[in-house]
Write a structure and sequence with these properties.
The chain is an all-alpha fold and 534 residues long. Helix content is 73%, strand content 1%. Strands 1-2 form a two-stranded antiparallel sheet. The N terminus and C terminus are likely disordered.
Length: 534
């Protein structure tokens, strides 16, 4: 393959504005001769804004997933009336997206290694557009399912590769914030889906759910435009031995040329371009399926967090929030949809809190707050729904409704503070370059399968053990997730991707569930500093 640093169009590099040979050079003549000065503050801020813009554009894929989750919770009410679908068909329609999206996640890893990260995101958006269009005009349940399957594959592509892309362009100090952006976009998409449900609920039952689904095509159009703005991942370019292009992109996204060269050297070593690495002789999937102790630790952390994110019932809470609120005592469809808007608003607001704290506090403290808070709220929701059924006359029905809404909002708030965004962060951080795409895809598989199983069985299980019983089960699983965080999740705050790989290789910092004391102090309001231990 020809190196991209030797362009055909008149010798000008395609990233010419970033090419070192064409950058205006600031030199200082000191005792040691000429040396390059750091980039001016305005240039540094411009590059920082560009990195954030790239991360935002890459995160648009997540809006598709969020919107689909949110809009389906309300649209399904009117699909039942228009297409006369059964409860079983409802479960399949809602839950199949999660399972089918794993096909996109699995193929997305290999595709992103073959054609690049950003073009894989574009491919996912195109597939989703076709699926959403088919669903919008579906005359029957069968056609609706065909569109749903296509949309799921497209979402799987985008959800897998966007986190990888953002992690690979982000500097270590901002990577937690930037790789959390997909979770922000999921929450924003969910909120937009809920608002769409409420806004169009007054239309005809034959038209309203079709408009709700059709609006979801719009974000994928913006993704198409974004592909002409964002650069390719420098780490992928290095894997393809396109060193000149990788350097040019790093100059564009780093604060200074010195940082760009340092990151280039780290990536070059990790990619095995400077020296041969034994691990390159293995097939990637063979290494993942027959892992070394270090890779096994990575799989526990990266895939385990994806699993617990879903089996604690967040998708069931979001997809079936109208069912939950109906069980709590709300009667009219519009009141149900209005209550779901409150859930979406809460989820979106608290994800912003997490983005502010994730690179200040660290991953593990937020995960502890998240998992413990979710456990309490899930248990409280089970209690609220039980009292509504078995304590009739002992308390006002309004109190039960308010308690249920409070518990659901509390659950999604605690989820958004930690388990939601940090899942994306960790799954894109913990794997080394040679395993990152497939490792992230494998984590997505576990998460999507778990989400699908929960979504496709929720109504049936709720009929067997009650809706309240389901949330007692989720509370028990959430308790186990607290232990998982302590045992299996390392702190990765402030470390480069290459340093994280070395940490897993040594295993020293991975064991014992360490937390830096100063990190936890960010979460504890106090007028005086803690005394040092010992």
């Amino acid at each position: 393959m020809a190196d991209a640093g030797t362009p055909a169009n008149g010798g000008r590099n395609k990233y010419a504005v970033l090419d070192r040979s064409e950058e205006p050079e600031q030199l200082d003549a000191g005792a040691g001769g000429r040396r390059r000065l750091p980039a001016p503050e305005s240039e540094r801020r411009r590059r920082e804004r560009f990195v954030y813009a790239c991360a935002v554009f890459a995160s648009l894929n997540a809006i598709l997933l969020g919107y689909d989750v949110g809009v389906m919770s309300g649209a399904i009410i009117y699909m039942q009336k228009d297409l006369h679908i059964t409860e079983f068909q409802q479960e399949i329609l809602v839950g199949c997206l999660s399972v089918v999206s794993l096909l996109g996640s699995l193929s997305g890893g290999r595709t992103s290694d073959a054609i690049g990260r950003k073009w894989t995101m574009g491919l996912g958006a195109i597939v989703f557009q076709f699926g959403a269009a088919i669903m919008t005009f579906a005359p029957s349940f069968t056609v609706l399912m065909i569109g749903r399957l296509l949309a799921g594959v497209g979402i799987g592509f985008g959800a897998m590769v966007s986190g990888v892309y953002i992690a690979e362009i982000s500097p270590a100090g901002a990577r937690g914030t930037l790789t959390s952006l997909p979770e922000i976009c999921i929450n924003l998409g969910i909120l937009l889906g809920y608002v769409s449900n409420y806004a169009f609920s007054g239309l005809s039952e034959h038209i309203n759910w079709r408009i709700m689904l059709g609006v979801g095509i719009l974000p994928s159009v913006f993704i198409g435009f974004a592909l002409f703005v964002i650069p390719e991942s420098p780490r992928w370019l290095m894997m393809e031995k396109r060193v000149s292009e990788a350097r040019a992109v790093l100059l564009q996204i780093s604060e200074s040329e010195a940082e760009a060269e340092e990151r280039l050297a780290e990536i070059e070593e990790a990619a095995g371009l400077m020296k041969s690495m034994k691990s390159e002789e293995k097939e990637v999937w063979k290494e993942l399926l027959n892992p070394s102790p270090a890779v096994r630790r990575m799989l526990y952390a990266g895939c385990g967090i994806q699993l617990f994110q879903q089996i604690t019932g967040i998708d069931a809470t979001v997809y079936y929030s109208p069912t939950i609120f109906k069980d709590a005592g709300i009667k009219s469809d519009q009141e149900l949809l209005a209550a779901t808007v409150a859930v979406g608003f809460t989820k979106t607001v608290f994800i912003l809190v997490a983005i502010f704290l994730i690179d200040k506090v660290g991953r593990k403290p937020l995960l502890y707050v998240s998992t413990i808070g979710m456990t309490i709220c899930l248990f409280l929701l089970g209690v609220a729904l039980t009292l509504q059924k078995h304590a009739v006359g002992l308390m006002s029905p309004r109190i039960g409704i308010d308690l249920a809404i409070f518990a659901v909002c509390g659950n999604v708030a605690f989820f958004s503070i930690g388990m939601g965004p940090i899942c994306w962060v960790l799954s894109s951080e913990v794997f080394p370059l040679r395993l990152r795409a497939q490792g992230s895809a494998l984590g997505q598989v576990g998460g999507r399968v778990s989400s699908g199983l929960v979504s496709m069985s929720f109504l049936s299980m709720a009929r067997a053990i009650s809706v309240a019983g389901m949330f007692f089960v989720f509370a028990a699983i959430s308790t186990i997730s607290v232990v998982f965080v302590y045992v299996c999740v390392p702190e990765t705050k402030g470390k480069t991707l290459e340093q994280i790989e070395m940490m897993f290789e040594s295993g020293d910092e991975w064991r014992g569930g360490e937390i830096e004391l100063e990190d936890t102090q960010h979460l504890i309001p106090s007028n005086k500093k803690s005394e040092p231990l010992g």
